[in-house]
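Query structure, 258 tokens:
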């Protein structure tokens, strides 16, 4: 069976997954700086005889061009996810990021139900919300700094604060406003503020949507924050890659559109 590689080129890393039809059979990632190495690894698979195609979503045009040139030279067909070249999600706008579009596609196709809106919260370099109604029309969304980006900004702006990172899963019961160390004060303050923001987004979604809302969390930090999120939020770590694959399927078979 032919394999479609889904590539999600983000601001700090590139996530990849192999799909056979709808089934994800492998995933991996590299830092953005290793885009040339990543592309060569995929090209080598094709040169070794593997039947490959690739679908790319990117927010970094320079990396997209480099990856595309290398894999095309090896004879791999490349499809790029573009806002104006898909029909799954309606009422999009030209500057919408393709990562958010991929989330919208997968959320609507894989989790949508009749009469219900789907809202995806993506915890990555930025934290984003993207909402799609039951008819597949984009309602809109929000973008703000992500958790890691916020911590990095604190470290850069406040010289005497310790350098911290998010290294383990966050549990709601262990977060307290009475932190006993500077490190815990920074982490708890940043995390609790972020979670409160997300909960306010959920509340606003419910208020403004004319349909019940299904909430899905995804992104590089989704597994870290999942334990502190409201129970109603579904977690799908691979939603963006699944959306890229779904677009790739549509591009190959334009008759299978919804």
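Result returned for the query:
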């Amino acid at each position: 069976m032919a394999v479609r590689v889904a590539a999600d080129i983000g601001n700090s890393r590139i996530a990849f997954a192999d799909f056979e039809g709808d089934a994800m059979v492998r995933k991996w990632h590299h830092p953005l700086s290793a885009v040339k190495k990543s592309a060569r690894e995929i090209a080598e698979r094709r040169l070794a005889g593997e039947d490959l195609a690739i679908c790319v979503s990117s927010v970094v045009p320079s990396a997209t061009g480099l990856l595309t040139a290398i894999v095309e030279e090896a004879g791999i067909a490349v499809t790029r996810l573009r806002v104006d070249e898909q029909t799954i999600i309606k009422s999009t706008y030209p500057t919408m990021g393709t990562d958010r579009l991929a989330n919208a596609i997968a959320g609507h196709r894989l989790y949508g139900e009749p009469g219900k809106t789907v809202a995806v919260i993506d915890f990555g370099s930025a934290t984003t919300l993207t909402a799609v109604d039951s008819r597949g029309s984009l309602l809109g969304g929000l973008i703000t700094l992500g958790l890691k980006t916020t911590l990095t900004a604190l470290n850069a702006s406040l010289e005497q604060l310790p350098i911290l990172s998010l290294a383990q899963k966050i549990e709601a019961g262990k977060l307290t406003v009475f932190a006993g160390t500077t490190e815990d004060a920074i982490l708890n303050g940043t995390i609790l503020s972020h979670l409160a923001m997300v909960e306010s987004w959920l509340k606003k979604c419910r208020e403004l949507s004319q349909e019940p809302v299904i909430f899905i969390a995804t992104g590089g930090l989704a597994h870290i924050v999942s334990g502190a999120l409201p129970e109603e939020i579904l977690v799908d770590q691979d939603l963006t890659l699944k959306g890229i694959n779904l677009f790739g399927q549509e591009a190959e078979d334009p008759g299978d559109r919804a």
